[in-house]
Fold this sequence. Notes:
Structural class of chain A: alpha+beta
Oligomer: heterodimer
Largest interface: A-B, 29 and 25 residues
CATH class of the largest domain in chain B: Alpha Beta
Bound molecules: flavin-adenine dinucleotide, FE2/S2 (inorganic) cluster
Shape of chain A: globular
Amino acid sequence: MAMKPVTFTLNTEAKAAFTEDGQNLLDFLRRGAGDLSPKYGCGQGTCGACTVLVDGEPHLSCLVLAETVQGRRVETTAGLGQARPHALQEAFMERFAAQCGYCTPGMLMSAKALLDRNPRPSREEVIEAIAGNLCRCTGYEPIIAAILDVAEGRIRA
Amino acid sequence: MAVLVESHATLGDAQRALGSDGTYLGGGTLVMREVNAGALQGRILRTSDPALRQIRPSLDSVEIGAGVTMAMILAERDLAHLHPVARAVGGPQVRVMATVGGNLFAVHPYGDLTVALLALGARVVSAGGAQRPIEDFLRERDRTGLVATVQVPRPREPRGFAFLKVSRVKPKGVSVLSVAAHLPRDGGRLRGVRIAFGAMGPTPLRAQAAERVLEGSALTPDLIARAAAAATDGLDPPTDALASAWYRREVAGVHLRRLLERML
Ligand SMILES: Cc1cc2nc3c(=O)[nH]c(=O)nc-3n(C[C@H](O)[C@H](O)[C@H](O)COP(=O)(O)OP(=O)(O)OC[C@H]3O[C@@H](n4cnc5c(N)ncnc54)[C@H](O)[C@@H]3O)c2cc1C
Ligand code: FES
Ligand code: FES
């Protein structure tokens, strides 16, 4: 199987790793770059647990061909709140927005993509932003509340 | 056998290298599923040809590159009539990847944008430059080769075009059915009516019986009721995990009526 070198930025760090032909970005981040924060749920684009940002836009890393991130910037939950928790992480804790926690890394990245682009979203815009992320535990309300807490300045980092 | 990925400079190069065993990778939302499941092996071809990502508006139509994504449509003010359609495709992560070209090939229950393009009477332009009406393309899509752009006529007035998608999972779910209508008006009468359904057959299909009811008349509630009654004449909707053929046939007319009432 052909191996191809990929150089990219992972959170704040310049990275170089080899990808196998046909490898998806989720597998590449976890096995190639050693970042275990994006989660594997379905490998089919339906759950959103693998959501990462590529050049600021939310992507399902299981559906991205790894070699296409050459020269681009990938953000994962591992890059959030490295010194102290990010405001979204604080809010998720405060609101009990993580129960089993499996959806949380994907939810956080979808929420970050939203707030980076639109710091004061409406409730409808929050719901739309996490529409591609499944949560089987919380019933979504705590997650929506947590994101709105950050958007409306009730919780800061 | 494993997967082998080839990158080509242009769509034309990819077309020449495609052969009978290659799979073209657009945004990859459907192709990568197959790769992940081990169901797709062999050569995968891709290109970052910038020509594929262009949107070129002209007076009465817009030329949209096959590599344009749903998110790019949503960012283009000139395509406001297609915004409700692009927004109906998946969640935000799918929309940044899902392309117009891939949507043309997506099989049931996908292909929501294609339903709109069929109602608008788009023309599909191949990598070699050949052009064909979208209904011909949909009939032959297994052997048409790579798509470069689609030329999409622009509705002359905002209420001349409407789209509706019915899904069970809210806010995002695949189509139980989707329907689009283009009703150009000429002196108060409808001329060149086109209605298209998604999830009512293997590809998006025109509702020709309903079109015939509307053609040449003025749009009234009574006419709408007659068109709705003819909604599924000549169509053979599928049964799948989302709905039975019986259910689709029962509700298609109701949704067509609601759509047309918005266009009064
Ligand atoms: C979670 C999820 C939700 C989805 N929801 C919807 C939805 O609500 N509505 C909907 O319509 N779709 C939906 N889809 C399906 C899909 O994302 C879209 O149909 C999308 O537009 C496909 O485009 P793509 O670029 O990703 O296709 P790809 O996966 O890249 O390709 C799909 C097919 O098209 C061919 N192809 C792609 N581009 C070209 C070209 N230029 N020339 C020739 N052949 C080409 C490929 O070879 C392949 O056979 C969903 C998918 C997922 C994973
Ligand atoms: S693992 Fe990518 S969407 Fe489920
Ligand atoms: S907290 Fe368990 S899936 Fe969301």
